């Protein structure tokens, strides 16, 4: 190719005029949710007056493009804009998400395609698969084919000024000297031929062929990037396009904040052991000088490159115009890998940590020393994980060591080789910047003070580790079952003539309200409706989803807020609110509030916010409902379990000045300070869950006694008795979870009082009681209005202890009933020996130790065959559950249940057939036949979902 060119434009300082280039421009970005992409979007919003930023975002794990964008904008990288820009909302409104599917030739739909072709002026293609161990055809599909389809679309863009194709400096790492040009020397007949013969290969053949085709190239990532560059030069040289080659991209230098990082790939991931104070030696040449660039410098270079590509397009007259290439590397001011480890350690907090890091982390030219240390680290991690497992904790040390080892091996090639290069185009860009643009786009790598840079480097990694741990805890806290709520919705759809059920659903783990509604409908609990209804689609069409956010006072936005207050009925559950209009007066204007955080080990503030503040917001909102007739607040029978006899009344005996004063005390405290105070505040109650339920009852009595509200107290809720199918269950908590070892015929004794009698109720009986209580609350409220007109004192709110004591079984009898349904004769005979409730805590501990030992051996065998280990984690979860409900296995309570009995006597025969909830007349032996079968079916469903998820992940 003849690359002779004639530059007709000025070459003086300020030639690029970057600020004007981006003014009122529409910028298209792929990979905008990644590490470099986030910084690019943030920089464009904060420093340039762009008109719009369009992000092409793929749906990922059922999370839509708009949801992924919203989640990204809520991240800490945009905190600087939120805190400094007075028009932050207007700035964020410039960012638009567009659904994209790079697996198709048309990556967007026709409507979006028309918008892009008419509006887009600048394109940054940042998206890439950076996995080094990917099969070659998969890497090519992501890194080459996706780019090809994007640029084919760009060919139709009328206003297009510039395209920046982000590659990597190592795309030609099989050469020692790398020039700023495209090397079109793809072996084996070129890219098209490689793609063609890979189509006919099996997965095993693809892996073997990948290693052969790569040749001197270290991995499929850099090879695919080389192929992408060759494709750009060969097929899209007529476009205003340039190739930008960044080296190893690391944490930010100054923007948006020093040391910011949100991923642990490459060099950053290998520094995690330094920050954590671990010992880790890596094989490599300590004298090798790597090319590294802070992410903010990289993004500034990309922004300048886009402007330079446009300048070249307008001012360079070529004989045959080449695609400009920018090697974003700087020869001067480099450090060695040996110095790099010391520089990272210099940012640690204490002098001892800084000194010890020089010994603990090193780059060794002899492979045997890192290998020996790796064996010792693996042994140490395995021992640590096993010790944690014995105490019922879930260890992750071995997993961390394995991940770091895999990463170290993947980038070993780059620690052993050194390159030289030409970067004339990058230097020319620097010279063409005006003073203002040079301040706005600081990317001169030769001016970086690496000592100053690494002062924030370790801190940034530590901050991201904390954020990842916090997100992991939030994911665990969001886990919920919807056990009661699903049965309630199913019962109303199947047994009552509802007109519409509107579900107020919060987003959960990136899944929208509409998606969660579809997931709920697909649950087996609705199979009865599907089988019995003539038109089941019409039945399910009555369900409508609305997004809800209970973390703020305005938890429902307009126009839905006004519509809800005008609707007839609201049914609200943990993650689902239902508003229903019924043909029968019995269900008019009724609210069922079932939402609760049921984990006993949640943080004090979290559980009070969920179980007290949320119902407070809901009931304040319902004051404006003009035709409200009843609210059923679902509490728990154990909200006052510090008493052995529980009346049907609210006990306002919260210590430390009452629930409002407790909330004021804990608000300014840290989480650790709250954890220290919690036992003293909740005493003598056993956990913060029942304490929060007690606070909610007192709050209702004090603030909402004038509303038609009643408190419904169910005991331990177990699988269904008859509806929708006998034995149905979809959560494994409390008593249900503790029954699993019995069904699995495992040896496990629980500490408790074997003669104590638990209060149990099937979920369908509980739902029937709640629906009946709603009718009773309405009738009582109307009677109270009459009494108040005669100045009579009225007690509110009514309390329903859903407790029955005429047909009880002890804990040991409960275990025997579950074991009586085992499939084998020997299993039934040995059940009373294998599973027991014992008064001797030491016996319970011994059996748990035995369970952990067996689980450990099982996981060892699985690891030998390369299978995922789960036994220790299962036993750990069982141990946590057993400890959480220990208090309830050691005591027996009595209670008044006059209101519940009265409700049952007032039901007509037809209503009793529709709403059966008299637990005193249940046949427990018949019930437990279905109990064991239903729990076994739920375990099978979970195993099936796990396998399906594994297949999707693969």
Automatic annotation (TrEMBL):
GO biological process, alphabetically ordered: long-chain fatty-acyl-CoA metabolic process
Going by the entry's taxonomy, the superkingdom of the source organism is recorded as Eukaryota
Domain annotation Fatty acyl-CoA reductase C-terminal: ranges: 377-466, 851-935
Q: Could you tell me which residue ranges the Thioester reductase (TE) domain spans?
A: 29-300, 481-768
Q: Any idea which UniProt keywords this protein has?
A: Lipid biosynthesis, Lipid metabolism, Membrane, NADP, Oxidoreductase, Transmembrane, Transmembrane helix
List residues traversing the bilayer.
Answer: 848-866
Q: What is the E.C. number?
A: 1.2.1.84
One GO location term (cellular component): peroxisome
One Pfam entry for this protein is: NAD_binding_4
Does the record carry Lipid biosynthesis as a key word?
yes
| Catalyzed reaction equations | a long-chain fatty acyl-CoA + 2 NADPH + 2 H(+) = a long-chain primary fatty alcohol + 2 NADP(+) + CoA
Could you tell me which Gene3D superfamilies the record lists for this protein?
A: NAD(P)-binding Rossmann-like Domain
One GO MF term attached to the UniProt entry: alcohol-forming very long-chain fatty acyl-CoA reductase activity
Query: What is the similarity comment for this entry?
Result: Belongs to the fatty acyl-CoA reductase family.
Role summary: Catalyzes the reduction of fatty acyl-CoA to fatty alcohols.
Put simply, this protein is called Fatty acyl-CoA reductase
Record organism: Anopheles stephensi
